[in-house]
Predict the structure.
Amino acid sequence: MSFFRGVNARALENAPDGFKNFNIGENEAYIDNAQEGFTKDSGRPMVTITFKRDDGAEAKSYIVDNEWKLTNLKNLYAAFGIPLHSTDMADWYHKRGIVVCKEHVHEGKTYPRVSYLKPLPGGDRQQGRSGGSTGSAKPSQGTGQNSQPWRNERPPADDHFDDDIPF
């Protein structure tokens, strides 16, 4: 058995370029996978979410069961148009949003690390891997960028309050 069996110029030309990283900054992506597990250090429950771009690049994000769990879940749900009642992670698959990565230095090398999530402009969150629409692009009531629809409405002209400040 030889290590170089099957290695030739054509095979090397057609070989994949290797692992693709997300860019530093905004990346349009979809949820490719979500799994429950436990942290290595403390053994706390967590969810590992794998985001994937259409070119195959992947990034992982972790939501750990701690004081930030609900905030992080709320941000994920809002950015990817997931209904607030959804706890079946299979329903999250192929939802689209923006994954913002910042620089992370580890052992002298710089890597992109998921920093935060935000919704796609226009709310088109249902596209799958091929880029074609797989369902309604309109987010369900109570999710998305404006999860409280009254916030964008003007207050009544004269409601007998002196401080007509929109909240």
